[in-house]
Structures are given as structure tokens and as C-alpha cells.
């Protein structure tokens, strides 16, 4: 009941803010003070296709490719394995992902990537259904996102010793996991954007495990709610953040196998065709199938790590004739 109450309060506050802002004069709030009351689309709700860990409603433009590199170093705090002898995490690499996203249309993006953790290979699709307009005719931007990952790890690593059980049968389908998200965002002005991200995940293989503190069992399916934001301090520099709350009794107060909700805070810097995200997060994984169910580091115990996302967009098609 406490989970539902907190989630309800959070969602209520966000949409109450949206409603109150909708009462104000949108002409003075959105991209240009001279904007007219037309159905013009609001641009750059977020600068990149990701906020930090979370996908944004932004898609890659048609006939362009977004090349991205995401890196997470080791934990900074000594209590979580960091400290001076590890150069506060810089001597370690928690995860690295290299990705290529392609704009099939302005609203449809397909992408592939490979991560260091679990050697995950993932494919993604994002489709923007609605685009917020400057006259508030459409008050929100809406996109659907899906990601499928496959781990080609050696069986002894992937199954974590389960193959020692002679009755256990390996199956390649175990190595797949899936994430589906609804991305709901609103730009309240040129400075502030916010997003809600209800999420459903399915993992084909999990370890059978019980939380000894409340008898809750680990499940293949997970539901979570994410929230992300961007607050611009200048036109090219802003503060960004995202957070997921996972509705899992198994993960609640699990003293034997502790889990934590992934939280990321950072800075966004735009320099021409590049977008840099410098961030701190307790999530060591980079893709949704990994960091949402598997974050085991605590901010309060120094389990946060420095990381960055770098994105560079390339035009694949020829220039339009004018």
C-alpha cells in the first residue's frame, strides 16, 4: 500500500504541475517568445536520445546515425570498493557500451549496441507517437520504446553454477531479456523538461531465490516507474537526472541480496554535433535490461560511480535541395 501511495503522489504532483502550467500563456514559455498559436512541434524536449540512464522521447532524425559511447567507472566510495587506492573508481570499469542508432523516419529509430557487462548485445526500437505542440494542442510528447538483449557469455558465467545440477537443461532462449517502456514527456519552457517512464520487463532466466526477510520470490517479470528531468542553466549547459522505482517485494529490504533503485544525476553539455553527459549513478549497467533489475550499489554506502555518455550524429543521406 505504501508503494502505491508514493507512486500516486508522485504522478499526481507531476500532472498537477503540468495542468497548472497549461493555464499559463504558452507563448511566453516555450521555444520562442515570438511563437504564434499554431500546432508547431516543440523541439528538443531533451537534447539526446537518453537523459542519463533513461531513454528520452527524442528520436534520431531520418537518414542520420547517432554513434554513442557510454562508460561507467568503478565505485567512488571506499565502503563500496572505491577510495584512493582505486583512484576513486577510475582504475575500474563497471560497464562500457558502444551503440549505433539509425533514423528510419523522423519518428522511428532502430539501434544496436554491445555492452561489457554480460557481453550483452542489444537491439532497440523507438517510435514517437505524439509530439508536444507550442500552442498546447498536444500537451505531451509520447513514445514507445522496446529493447531486446542477448548474453553470449560462457555458460559457467551465465548460469552462475546452475549447470552443475544434472537435471538442469540449458537453452539458448534463456539468454534473452526484454524491456518495453512508454515515454511520456513535457517541456515546460526552454529550461525545464520532465518525463515519466512506466516500464515492463521480462527476463527469460533468473535464479530461483527468496527474500528471507519477507518470503517474496524473485520473478521473471518486473514493473517499474521512472522519472527523469532536464533543467537548463544556459542554452548549452544543464542539469539532468533520472530515477526508477521497481515494484518488487523481492528487492525490498533484502538483507541477503540487497538491491537499490537506480538513481543518476549529472550535467549535459552540447557542443555543435556532440552531446556530453557527465554523470554520477549507482547503476553499473547501462542498458535497461541490466541496470533496472540488477543495481546492487547504494549511494549512501559510496556505491556511486562517475560515468559519461557521448553522442555524435552523422548525416547518411544527401543534403536536401532548396
Describe this structure as you would to a colleague.
The chain is mainly beta and about 325 residues long. It contains 3 helices and 12 strands; from the N terminus they run αβββββαββββββαβ. It has helices at about 1-20, 155-160, 290-295; strands at about 65-75, 95-105, 110-115, 120-130, 140-150, 175-185, 190-205, 220-230, 235-245, 265-270, 275-280, 305-315. A hairpin with a 4-residue loop joins strand 2 (about 95-105) and strand 3 (about 110-115). The longest helix has 21 residues, at about 1-20. Residues about 15-30 have low confidence and may be disordered.
Which features characterize this protein?
322 residues, twelve-stranded antiparallel barrel
Task: Furnish the topology, listing elements before pairings.
Layout: H1 2-22, E1 64-75, E2 93-103, E3 108-115, E4 121-130, E5 141-150, H2 155-158, E6 176-187, E7 192-203, E8 221-232, E9 237-246, E10 263-271, E11 274-281, H3 288-294, E12 305-315
Antiparallel strand pairs: 1-2, 1-12, 2-3, 3-4, 4-5, 5-6, 6-7, 7-8, 8-9, 9-10, 10-11, 11-12
Rg, Å, rounded: 21 Å
Strand % is 35-45%
Major sheet strand order: 1-2-3-4-5-6-7-8-9-10-11-12
Number of strands: 12
Instruction: Quickly give the structural class.
Output: mainly beta
**Level of helix content?**
under 10%
Largest sheet: 12 strands, antiparallel, barrel
Q: Are there runs of 5+ residues with pLDDT below 50, and where?
A: 13-28
Order of helices and strands: HEEEEEHEEEEEEHE
How many H/I helical runs?
3
Q: Give the overall shape.
A: globular
Amino acid at each position: 500500500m505504501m508503494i502505491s501511495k508514493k507512486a500516486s503522489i508522485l504522478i499526481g504532483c507531476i500532472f498537477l504541475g503540468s495542468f497548472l502550467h497549461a493555464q499559463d500563456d504558452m507563448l511566453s514559455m516555450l521555444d520562442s517568445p515570438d511563437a504564434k498559436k499554431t500546432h508547431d512541434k516543440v523541439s528538443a524536449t531533451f537534447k539526446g536520445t537518453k537523459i542519463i540512464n533513461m531513454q528520452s522521447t527524442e528520436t534520431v532524425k531520418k537518414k542520420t546515425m547517432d554513434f554513442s559511447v557510454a562508460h561507467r567507472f568503478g565505485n567512488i566510495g571506499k565502503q563500496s570498493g572505491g577510495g584512493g587506492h582505486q583512484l576513486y573508481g577510475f582504475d575500474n570499469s563497471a560497464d562500457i557500451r558502444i551503440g549505433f542508432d539509425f533514423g528510419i523516419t523522423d519518428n522511428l529509430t532502430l539501434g544496436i549496441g554491445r555492452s561489457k557487462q554480460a557481453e550483452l548485445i542489444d537491439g532497440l526500437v523507438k517510435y514517437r507517437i505524439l509530439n508536444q505542440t507550442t500552442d498546447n494542442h498536444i500537451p505531451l510528447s509520447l513514445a514507445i520504446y522496446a529493447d531486446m538483449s542477448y548474453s553470449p557469455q560462457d555458460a559457467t558465467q551465465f548460469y552462475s553454477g546452475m549447470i552443475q545440477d544434472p537435471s538442469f537443461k540449458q537453452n539458448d532462449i534463456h539468454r534473452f531479456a526484454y524491456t518495453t517502456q512508454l515515454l511520456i514527456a513535457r517541456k515546460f519552457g526552454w529550461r525545464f523538461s520532465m518525463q515519466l517512464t512506466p516500464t515492463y520487463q521480462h527476463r527469460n532466466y533468473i535464479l530461483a531465490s527468496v527474500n528471507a526477510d519477507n518470503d517474496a520470490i524473485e520473478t521473471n517479470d518486473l514493473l517499474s516507474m521512472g522519472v527523469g528531468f532536464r533543467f537548463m542553466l544556459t542554452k548549452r549547459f544543464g542539469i539532468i537526472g533520472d530515477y526508477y522505482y521497481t515494484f518488487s517485494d523481492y528487492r525490498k529490504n533484502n538483507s541477503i541480496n540487497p538491491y537499490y533503485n537506480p538513481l543518476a544525476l549529472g550535467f549535459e553539455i552540447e557542443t555543435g554535433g556532440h552531446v556530453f553527459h557527465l554523470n554520477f549513478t549507482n547503476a553499473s549497467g547501462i542498458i535497461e535490461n541490466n541496470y533496472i533489475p540488477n543495481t546492487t550499489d547504494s549511494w549512501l554506502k559510496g556505491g556511486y560511480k562517475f560515468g559519461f555518455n557521448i553522442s555524435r550524429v552523422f548525416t547518411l543521406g544527401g543534403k536536401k535541395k532548396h
